[in-house]
Design goal:
This protein is α+β, with helices and mostly antiparallel strands. The protein has one domain: 2-Layer Sandwich (TATA-Binding Protein), CATH 3.30.310.50. It contains two helices and three strands. A three-stranded antiparallel beta sheet has the order 1-3-2. The relative contact order is 0.26.
């Protein structure tokens, strides 16, 4: 089974979203594609099961959270 998810997260500025995307894009590999459109981060996530997708989403969102906190502090 193939499971897909598109996640969109809006940020306050283009600069902030670009920095966050650059930080997390390093870990994209084959199952996540991170892109930016305006002030929105767009992640397309593919997985072999719903359980695997949920684990990937959990990890990805945790990374986004940490990166956005670091970028927001500067």
């Amino acid at each position: 089974m193939n499971v897909e998810c598109k996640l969109k997260i809006d940020f306050k500025s283009v600069e902030e979203v670009k920095k966050v995307a650059e930080s997390v894009k390093v870990d994209d590999f084959d199952f996540v594609k991170t892109n930016v459109s305006g002030k929105t981060l767009i992640a397309e996530i593919n997985s072999i099961s719903i359980t695997s997708l949920l684990h990937t989403l959990d990890d990805y969102i945790a990374c986004i959270s940490v990166a956005s906190k670091i970028v927001g502090e500067k």
